[in-house]
């Protein structure tokens, strides 16, 4: 199963403060460990929200709002995609992550939906039937 | 945390640490069976202590220390036993076991140990099934129960297979090492074959009747990625990883709503996993950058990459696939590869050219009961408008397949052909 590991933003990450050489080194070592264990699929740091944008959806309306956004703790500063056997394993790996924040902070672990996670049911059947129909039309 | 939570946490920690632990212990003891026992003893110690004391900050170090104590106990007992042997006048054992320097040995860089462990578990003295089971157990950290479920056999069968494999290794005196020179290439090929065997065991299963089977492919991918990290200069390792990543990218598109198989060219490519495709193409580029004549897995990955790069089926680079199958057939001549090449030729140069190649294969004894021969022939005949002949071929293919879902698909194609 796959998990997205989300590093929550901090004041520093939002301020665009670059990580120290020491932190970069510790993260590289941790990444290397995950790569060598065959579990790290992807991962990146994100630039501060001041360089980002949001699109607000309201019915048919779309409003673009430029960053920065206020609620730092709810923002994302980076992510990994890892593939492990259980949530417990994902947690154990991430407990070994060097602390990405100088202040207190969070790393969040969320399982990725896979095709087989959508348990059979009328809604999913409907969804798949439409897809099958679309496929037929394409031929 | 409840007792179950702690239990699951310990299992997770153990899965992360187990291969390293066993690999380090095996170098000292020169016996993977004994190494696994010592590692298991450490696990038992953790299961006894951690619920009381909590999970230690450095669980890996804790387990290593526990295993080290058990190893010291073991060597003490061995020495004692040898002294007793001497006392009662038994033949002196020629092999004098000195107590190894466990502290520094276990703290060494474990990369090479893990590679040795993989090479030992995949030793050709074992049957391919035994190699696969032992690798999943020692390197993957799967329980015998999980392996048994994945292979759809009874747990005692797998347990037996693993016990026997460990005994065979120790009786054959298989050295715990990474072979060198020409040996290395040969043994590496065996390691890659075992990993691919595991991958296919999960991949070839129709639909998710048993949840463990896709998980088996995931495990093979993980093992392949570990190997790529340990042997980064071996192009064929990256070739195999590339092949598996790209094949795995199609998992979500390979079966329809009722679990029926969907052929490659009919798959909804929006369902292909682009992250895995990207990883596969990167691994293939790495393999190619290492130079040398491409070997079979790299060639197969290059073929898979041709499909992965085409966002719609009609964009597929068929002439390149024909060339790659040609190169593959030269390396590992096989009528099945020839048949695949015929399919590609049919796409690149038209159905008549493909049919010519397929007909040349029809006398091939190895393909006599291979359902894909009539199935491919039927497909080419349909394209040539020879529907009656096509129908007969699909019916023959339906008789030959052992897969129920595939049989239905073939019968449907036969009916379709006769309707035209």
Summarize the topology.
The complex is a heterodimer of chains A (139) and B (420).
Chain A: E1 2-8, H1 11-14, H2 21-36, E2 40-45, E3 53-58, E4 61-66, E5 76-83, H3 87-95, E6 107-111, H4 122-138
Antiparallel strand pairs in A: 1-5, 1-6, 2-5, 3-4
Chain B: H1 3-29, H2 32-53, H3 59-87, H4 102-107, H5 111-121, H6 128-138, H7 144-150, H8 155-171, H9 181-203, H10 212-230, H11 235-249, H12 274-289, H13 296-309, H14 318-331, H15 335-349, H16 351-361, H17 372-383, H18 387-400, H19 404-419
Q: What is the strand content of chain A?
A: 25-35%
Instruction: Please outline the major beta sheet of chain B.
Output: none
Counting H and I runs of at least 4 residues, what is the number of helices of chain A? 4
For the termini of chain B, the CA-CA separation is: 66 Å
Oligomer: heterodimer
- Amount of helix of chain A: 25-40%
Radius of gyration of chain B: 26 Å
Major interchain interface with per-chain residue totals: A-B, 26 and 32 residues
Query: Structural class, from helix and strand content of chain B?
Result: mainly alpha
Main sheet makeup of chain A: 4 strands, antiparallel
Report strand order across the widest sheet of chain A: 2-5-1-6
Helix content of chain B: over 70%
Arithmetic mean of pLDDT of chain A: 87
Rg of chain A, nearest Å:
19 Å
Query: How many β strands of chain B by DSSP?
Result: 0
**SSE string of chain A, helices as H and strands as E:** EHHEEEEHEH
């Amino acid at each position: 199963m796959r998990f997205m590991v989300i590093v929550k933003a901090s004041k520093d990450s939002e301020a665009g403060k670059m990580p120290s050489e020491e932190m970069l080194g510790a993260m590289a070592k941790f990444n290397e460990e995950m790569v060598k264990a065959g579990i790290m699929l992807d991962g990146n740091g994100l630039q501060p929200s001041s360089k980002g944008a949001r699109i607000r959806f309201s019915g048919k309306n779309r409003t673009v709002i430029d960053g920065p956004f206020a609620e730092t703790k709810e923002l994302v500063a980076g992510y990994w995609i890892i593939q492990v056997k259980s949530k417990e394993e994902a947690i154990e790996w991430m407990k070994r992550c060097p602390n990405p924040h100088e202040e207190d902070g969070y790393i969040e672990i969320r399982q990725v939906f896979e095709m087989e996670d959508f348990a059979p049911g009328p809604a999913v059947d409907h969804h798949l039937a439409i897809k099958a129909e679309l496929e037929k039309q394409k031929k | 945390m409840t007792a179950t939570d702690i239990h699951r946490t310990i299992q997770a920690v153990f899965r992360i640490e187990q291969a390293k632990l066993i690999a380090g212990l095996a170098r000292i003891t020169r016996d993977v069976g004994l190494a696994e026992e010592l590692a298991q003893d450490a696990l038992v110690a953790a299961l006894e202590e951690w619920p009381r004391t909590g999970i230690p900050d450095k669980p890996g170090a804790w387990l290593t220390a526990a295993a080290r104590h058990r190893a010291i106990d073991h060597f003490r007992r061995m020495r004692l036993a040898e002294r007793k042997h001497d006392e009662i006048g038994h033949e002196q054992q020629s092999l004098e076991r000195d107590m190894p320097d466990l502290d520094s040995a276990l703290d060494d860089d474990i990369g090479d140990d893990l590679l040795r462990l993989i090479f030992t578990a995949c030793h050709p003295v074992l049957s391919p099934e035994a190699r696969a089971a032992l690798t999943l157990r020692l390197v993957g950290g799967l329980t015998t129960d999980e392996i048994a479920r994945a292979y759809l056999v009874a747990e005692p069968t797998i347990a037996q297979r693993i016990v026997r494999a460990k005994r065979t290794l120790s009786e054959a005196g298989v050295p715990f090492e990474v072979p060198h020179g020409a040996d290395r290439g040969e043994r590496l090929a065996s390691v890659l074959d075992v990993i691919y065997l595991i991958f296919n065991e999960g991949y070839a299963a129709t639909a998710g009747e048993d949840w463990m089977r896709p998980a088996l492919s995931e495990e093979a991918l993980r093992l392949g990625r570990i190997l790529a990290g340990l042997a980064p200069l071996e192009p064929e390792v990256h070739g195999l990883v590339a092949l598996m990543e790209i094949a795995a990218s199609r998992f979500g598109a390979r079966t329809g709503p009722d679990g029926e198989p969907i052929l490659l060219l009919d798959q909804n490519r929006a369902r292909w996993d682009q992250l895995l495709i990207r990883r596969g193409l990167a691994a293939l580029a790495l393999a190619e950058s290492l130079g040398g004549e491409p070997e079979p897995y790299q060639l197969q990955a290059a073929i898979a990459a041709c499909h992965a790069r085409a966002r719609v089926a009609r964009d597929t680079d068929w002439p390149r696939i024909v060339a790659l199958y040609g190169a593959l057939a030269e390396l590992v001549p096989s009528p099945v590869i020839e048949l695949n090449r015929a399919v590609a030729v049919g796409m690149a140069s038209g159905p008549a050219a493909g049919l010519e190649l397929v007909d040349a294969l029809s006398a091939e004894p190895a393909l006599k009961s291979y359902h894909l021969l009539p199935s491919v022939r039927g497909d080419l005949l349909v394209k040539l408008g020879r529907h009656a002949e096509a129908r007969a071929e699909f019916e023959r293919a339906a008789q030959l397949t052992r897969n129920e879902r595939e049989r239905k698909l073939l019968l449907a194609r036969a009916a379709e052909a006769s309707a035209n």
